[in-house]
Amino acid sequence: MRLLLIDDEANLRRMLRLVLEDEGYHVTEAGSAEEGLRLAPDASPEVVLLDLALPGISGLEALPRLQALLPGTPIVMMSGEASLSDAVRATRQGAFHFLEKPLSPEAVIATLRGAMEVSRARELSRALREEIAPGTRLVGQSAEMERVRELLRKVAPTQARVLITGESGTGKELAAAAIHALSDREGGPFVRVNSAAIPRELVESEMFGHEKGAFTGATERRRGRFELANGGTLFLDEVGDLGSEAQAKLLRALESGGIQRVGGQDSFQVDVRVIAATNRDLRTEVTEGRFREDLLFRLEVVVVPMPALRDRIEDLPELIDHAAALLRRRQGLTPPDLSDDALTVLREHPWPGNVRELLNVIERMAILHPGGRIDGPAARSLLGRSPDAGAPPLPGAGSLRDRLDAFEREAIETALRAGEGVVAEAARLLETDRGNLYRRMKRLGISEG
Fold first, then answer.
1. Distance, CA of 31 to CA of 37 (rounded, Å)
2. pLDDT for 147-186, tens place per residue?
3. In the Cβ-directed half-sphere of 307, how many Cα atoms lie within 13 Å?
């Protein structure tokens, strides 16, 4: 996560760097707007923190220049001397948010998290527009992927709520972003909420925002995800992991279209299309009393099932080529050639982590064997299997939950091996946050190292 920090206070920059680097940000510092404008193109930040009162060019003057250099990049303004008119003017000029000094680390992190969601969603949306536009295609020509594409094209122009189902790693977020990119909301925000990663006591604040002073640590007003998605699409990932209280509040928002910030007195309407995704069988969750049936009815107007990789294994060569092209373009890596035996090993692998696991495996090959050649035994080793182990069977007994747990355990253990036991690296490979991964490891009895 790349961040450009522009502030003339060296001590503040030092404090923010320590806080943000601990959160996984790569911080580029600038002590003036002029320096920030010079560094911006090479830094290629995903979000900018910009002070209002700067020597020389002010933050407000620098804002449109940064927007021209970094189109679509969220810019968060901050100031200890700002008036309400300054905040309004910055917001009207396109600033993502306005933070008052002295800064609270929690407020900065929360604001940047929201900004990163927007930045990531815009990048994903641009990529998907290119990929799913007429004359192009999503990766894979199997009958299963053709059915997915046809469903996406039918549902995207409507305002219907969509429930995307499928195992972890099958591309549910890509499908949601494709629906957004093909809809008339394409110019609006695409905001993602990882339902499993939000602590239960913070769900209402994350979803609907809060007013300054609403609770301990609420040092300023904060917009929730529904408000951030106004005019666009809200993607509720892993919606099956929401607790009962959060489900009730979500149901009320879907029924009324209105939200109320925590600590606020007034409700207000938002125009948001909700797309949800889950790797659970929500019908079973309803039967067992863990998910509200009335909420399920609201969410599943149209269901888009994403196929597991093992069910479209004929797409494997094309997916490998696609992964190799991404690695060359994004990281400058040169993936190795695969022998026929290596391809056979990959075809026989059950891929419990699906396409996400495949991408991780190809990245691992490119790092460990750049530009080389992979044979069958080497492929087995890189998959975490001994040369004579053979292909592990798919779980054929037990409940759906047991099978999903087995697939999830395999995906996490594969990511931990690839990350040499470092949980933060495994979380990056699985495209989740450390807190969520720790909770899942604890639930599945997976130890670190």
1. 11
2. 999 999 999 999 999 999 999 889 998 899 889 988 989 8
3. 19
Structure token digits, residue 44:
């290629």
Question: What's the helix, strand, coil split of the chain in %, to 5?
Answer: 50, 15, 35
Which helix (H) or strand (E) segment holds residue 398: the answer is: none
Q: Which tokens in the block code for residue 433?
A: 């946050």
Can you list the pairs that 368-373 forms with residues at least 24 positions away whose Cβ atoms lie under 8 Å?
A: 369/336, 370/333, 370/334, 370/335, 370/336, 371/334, 371/336, 372/336, 372/337, 373/336, 373/337, 373/338, 373/339
- DSSP alpha helix (H) spans, 276-375: 282-287, 293-299, 316-331, 340-348, 354-368
Total count of residues recorded for the chain = 449
Q: What is the pLDDT of residues 91-105, one digit of tens each?
A: 778 888 888 888 888
Distance CA 8, CA 10 (A): 6
Contact 244, 200 (CB under 8 A): no
Within 10 angstroms of residue 377's Cβ, the number of other Cβ atoms is: 15
pTM as predicted: 0.61
Q: Give CA–CA dist 194/190, Å, rounded.
A: 13
Q: Residue 86: name the closest of 51, 37, 113 by CA.
A: 51
